[in-house]
Amino acid sequence: MRTGDDRFSMRLLGRALLTIFVDADACPVKEEVQRVADRHQLTVYIVSNGGIRPSRNPRVHSVNVTEGADAADNWIADRIEEFDIAITADVPLASRCLKKGASAIGPSGRVFTAENIGMALGMRELSRHLREATGKQTLHAGFTKQDRSRFLEALENEIQAIKRGAASIRR
């Protein structure tokens, strides 16, 4: 029987340490992801339904999907693997990524975990129900400098945690 460490070691031999997938439609931190990934020499997939300008960076791949509302989510969920990172505000996509052993971080720096994803899904469903019952839109707070800072810290921490895991396995 293989342990999680064995799978991680095999994964390290097979491809890059980790890949970052960005659910890019309306994502306010695409540039920040690219800068952090470049510093760590990581591959990034910027996935959208269109309208995203391709990056000149060879490690950043723009993917345009056109099959429907959840096409970008499905593209990411189909390709993300254990130890990868998803950047998304979409709670169901974050849940799908967590089930595959990947990490998920919201643009405001919220790290989705096995411990908090159930509550996040429940709150999403409650908000949907309230919108249907009242006919009113749910308003979200604007994106702030503090959100950007929290996001950068969360992304850096997640990358470092994955790298620390890789270093301990290589010893």
Backbone CA Rg: 17 Å
CATH class category label: Alpha Beta
* CATH topological fold name: Rossmann fold
CATH architecture: 3-Layer(aba) Sandwich
Provide the succession of SSEs.
Answer: HEHEEHEHEEHH
Oligomer: single chain
Shape: globular
Spatial separation of the terminal alpha carbons: 21 Å
Overall SS class: alpha/beta
Strand content: 5-15%
Low-confidence stretches: 1-14
Give, in spatial order, the strands making up the sheet with the most strands: 3-2-1-4-5-6
Helix content range of the residues, please? Answer: 40-55%
What's the number of structural domains? 1
Helix count equals 6
What is the mean predicted local confidence, pLDDT? 82
Your description of this structure?
The chain is of the alpha/beta class and 171 residues long. The chain has one domain (4-170): Rossmann fold (3-Layer(aba) Sandwich). The protein is built from 6 helices and 6 strands; from the N terminus they run αβαββαβαββαα. It has helices at residues 4-14, 30-40, 71-79, 91-99, 117-134, 145-170; strands spanning 19-23, 43-48, 60-64, 85-87, 103-105, 111-112. The chain has a 6-stranded mixed sheet, with helices on both faces. Strand 5 and strand 6 form a beta hairpin. The chain is globular and about 50 Å long. Residues 1-14 have low confidence and may be disordered.
